[in-house]
Design a protein that fits this description.
- The chain has 323 residues and is α/β, with parallel strands linked by helices.
- It has 2 domains: 3-122 and 250-316, 3-Layer(aba) Sandwich (D-Maltodextrin-Binding Protein, domain 2), CATH 3.40.190; 126-222, Periplasmic binding protein-like II (D-Maltodextrin-Binding Protein, domain 2, 3-Layer(aba) Sandwich), CATH 3.40.190.
- Helices cover 44% and strands 17% of the residues.
- The protein is globular.
Length: 323
């Protein structure tokens, strides 16, 4: 038994004998909240917004630590290897616990190496075209794409990203082979879409919203099963008959495997209370994020389903980024 396994076993044994007292004593020191990206940007903003308010409810400081690199791999490893005592948490999101494990070999198990704490929220992806593309809806875009198949390309935030996989998923039912142009991040991809170098894209609504409002890109549909309140006139792909388009840029909280159940329960209940407040809902709405409270079990199932869904797309579209 290594040190980590010993600590997990000891904590679990102690919790079994004194669960109420164990939960009541937690937290008694500062909690580290790892964010798997560099400071700045939407992911970091969500983390700091939530952590500030969560700390008040828990009555203990939460220190945000940004660990970028490897598409979240370094941060995920650091979290998985931490003591499972509830004092190291991470903002897991669609890359670390969805698309990355689905498209490449990662040095961690996104299910077995983590304890799901709860979901924060999500923003849908939105099918957008550049202003020069004449299509005003999805049907018109499909017709346009079929007639101009050799002239159409789409940008993404990088190989294996949600923006990449969502478009690959969309290409299957429409039967049009649109050329993929990967970028190093969402910002340059949107810049080239606006400039006309690419014609279509599936960015997250958070990143696309300002450009949609300015008229530089045109929204045709959003992913998910319900329309987004910020784009009430834009239909969902589900409305249009497309099945399985629940793609979303989501954010949640995980910790290392083996965190005692009483601590998980306390963290989940307080997190759900925080994201239910009108003030936080308003803050998240700035990033086009809708709160999605879940139990730990529900969040664990959500993660497993995300990996399975995007893994299927990767296999069907022959996307394997280790080769």
């Amino acid at each position: 038994m290594d040190r980590r396994e010993f600590v997990q076993a000891a904590l679990a044994l102690g919790a079994a004998h004194s669960a109420p007292a164990f939960a009541q004593a937690y937290p008694s020191k500062t909690i580290k909240y790892i964010v798997p990206v560099v400071a700045g940007g939407g992911n970091d903003l969500v983390a700091r917004t939530v952590a500030e308010r969560w700390a008040r409810v828990l009555g203990q400081s939460i220190v945000v630590e940004n660990i970028g690199g490897g598409g979240g791999v370094i941060a995920s490893q650091a979290t998985a290897n931490a003591a499972p005592d509830g004092y190291t948490l991470m903002q897991g999101y669609v890359a670390t616990h969805g698309t990355n494990p689905a498209t490449r070999k990662v040095p961690y198990d996104p299910v077995k190496d983590f304890t799901p704490i709860g979901m924060i929220g999500a923003t849908p992806n939105v099918l957008v075209v550049g202003a020069a593309v004449p299509a005003k809806d999805v049907r018109e875009f499909i017709e346009y794409a079929k007639k101009n198949a050799d002239k159409i390309s789409y940008g993404s935030a990088g190989p294996g990203s949600l923006t990449h996989l969502t478009m690959e998923l969309f290409k299957q039912p429409i039967g049009v082979e649109i050329v993929h142009v990967p970028y190093k991040g969402i910002a340059p991809a949107l810049t080239d879409l606006i400039g006309g170098s690419t014609q279509v894209m599936f960015p997250g609504l958070t990143a696309a919203l300002a450009h949609i409002k300015s008229g530089r890109i045109r929204p045709l549909a959003v992913t998910g099963t319900t329309r987004h309140p910020l784009l009430p006139d834009v239909p969902t792909l589900a409305e249009l008959g497309f099945v399985g388009f629940e793609a979303a840029q989501w954010y949640g909280v995980v910790g290392p495997a083996g965190i005692p159940a009483p601590i998980v329960k306390k963290l989940n209940e307080t997190l759900n209370a925080v994201i239910a407040t009108p003030e936080l809902k308003e803050k998240l709405a700035v990033e086009a994020i809708q709160p999605m409270p879940m139990s730990p079990a529900q969040f664990g199932e959500y993660i497993a389903a995300e990996i399975a869904k995007w893994g299927k797309v990767a296999r069907e579209r022959n996307i394997q980024l280790d080769s």
